[in-house]
UniProtKB/TrEMBL annotation:
Coiled coil: none
The name this protein goes by in its record: UDP-glucose 4-epimerase
Required cofactor names: NAD(+)
A GO MF term: UDP-glucose 4-epimerase activity
Organism from which the protein derives: Agromyces binzhouensis
Family per similarity comment: Belongs to the NAD(P)-dependent epimerase/dehydratase family.
Enzyme Commission identifier(s): 5.1.3.2
PANTHER family, sorted: UDP-ARABINOSE 4-EPIMERASE 1, UDP-GLUCOSE 4-EPIMERASE
Pfam families hit by this protein: Epimerase (PF01370)
SUPFAM superfamilies in UniProt: NAD(P)-binding Rossmann-fold domains
Record pathway: Carbohydrate metabolism; galactose metabolism
InterPro entries for the chain: Epimerase_deHydtase, NAD(P)-bd_dom_sf, UDP_G4E
Biological process annotations from GO: galactose catabolic process via UDP-galactose, Leloir pathway
Keyword NAD: yes
């Protein structure tokens, strides 16, 4: 029996696949390669090229590989772009999730770990976000993730589906030089690409009400995140009590300025970032408590900021010489 990982050829998904395999759990990957890379999928994990919008393909895959559970990571994840492409976002993230749940029901697969997002909270008015903090998404992306959580809850009431959703924030680092973050929108890739191109990295705003004037966020290592997915899947497999949602937060956060200083130290490039204007809608601080996940999923920050930067930089440099 195996676990299906949708989006398993992506940056996060490929780490999740490796974490499952490291614990002796077979996986099968479905990915349309719209943002993932076939080379990210490790040898030994069957790969199916296709979309989660294709319910028949999903059913065939589940039956052919004796799937017992799903880790659902596939989707359109760019919050800013989702404002310009709302229908595409809803099709990929809402219709896609509904098709997946339908294929699971038809195939007798009754457990799922859903990749949700801190975007469901919008701009919170608390210093430390918990699972009960009001949900006020500010983009079609955030709305689509919240709807995904609702779909799981509704299906659970209707069919007994066992599920949990992991809400996470800024995922960085790498667990292997074989997989790096290629996103054109995330902070680490933007900074590394600038350095590799001989440009000075740029940040957005340095006049926020924070200790160094730059935004404070939760940054978590992708390998720690992947381990939490495995822990959630194991809990579902064992029919142990599990919450419907967990925040995978650091509890204290890191500022963009701190990251820039650590990047300069790790890379040996003693740069001072250019400062652009604030981005509209960027809150000064978003930091979440991970206490609930620590209790049930052995969640904790196992990597320092330096290790996050160093591992991400190593993977990005390895990719640049391929």
């Amino acid at each position: 029996m195996s676990w299906l990982v949708t989006g398993g050829a992506g940056y996060i998904g490929a780490h999740v696949v490796r974490a499952f395999r490291a614990r002796g759990i077979d996986t099968v990957v479905v990915d349309d390669l719209s943002s993932g890379r076939r080379t990210f999928v490790p040898e030994g994990s069957p790969f199916v090229h296709g979309s989660i919008l294709d319910g028949a393909l999903l059913e065939d895959t589940m039956q052919a590989h004796d799937v017992r559970g799903v880790v659902h990571l596939a989707g359109f994840k760019y919050a800013g772009v989702s404002v310009q492409r709302p229908l595409h976002t809803y099709e990929q993230n809402v219709t896609g999730t509904a098709r997946l749940l339908g294929a699971m029901a038809a195939s007798g697969v009754d457990r799922i770990v859903f990749s949700s997002s801190a975007a469901v909270y919008g701009t919170p008015d608390v210093d430390l976000v918990t699972e009960d903090t009001p949900k006020r998404p500010e983009s079609p992306y955030g709305e689509s993730k919240l709807i995904g959580e609702w779909l799981l809850a509704d299906q659970a009431r209707a069919t007994g589906l066992r599920h949990t959703s992991l809400r996470y924030f800024n995922v960085v680092g790498s667990g292997t030089d074989e997989v790096f973050d290629p996103s054109p929108h995330n902070l680490f890739p933007l900074v590394f690409d600038a350095l590799l191109d001989g440009r000075t990295p740029r940040i957005n705003g340095d006049d926020y009400p924070t200790p160094d004037g730059t935004c404070v966020r939760d940054y978590i290592h992708v390998a720690d995140l992947a381990d939490a997915h495995v822990a959630a899947a194991r809990r579902l497999d064992a029919c142990e009590p599990i919450e419907s949602v967990y925040n995978l937060g650091s509890g204290d956060g890191v500022s963009v300025g701190e990251i820039m200083r650590e990047v300069a130290r790790v890379t040996g490039d003693d740069f001072t970032p250019e400062v652009g204007p604030r981005r509209e809608g960027d809150p000064a601080r978003i930091v979440a408590s991970g206490e609930l996940a620590a209790r049930d999923l052995d969640w904790r920050m196992r990597h320092t900021l330096g290790e996050m930067v160093a591992s991400a930089w190593s993977a990005r440099r390895a990719a640049s010489v391929e």
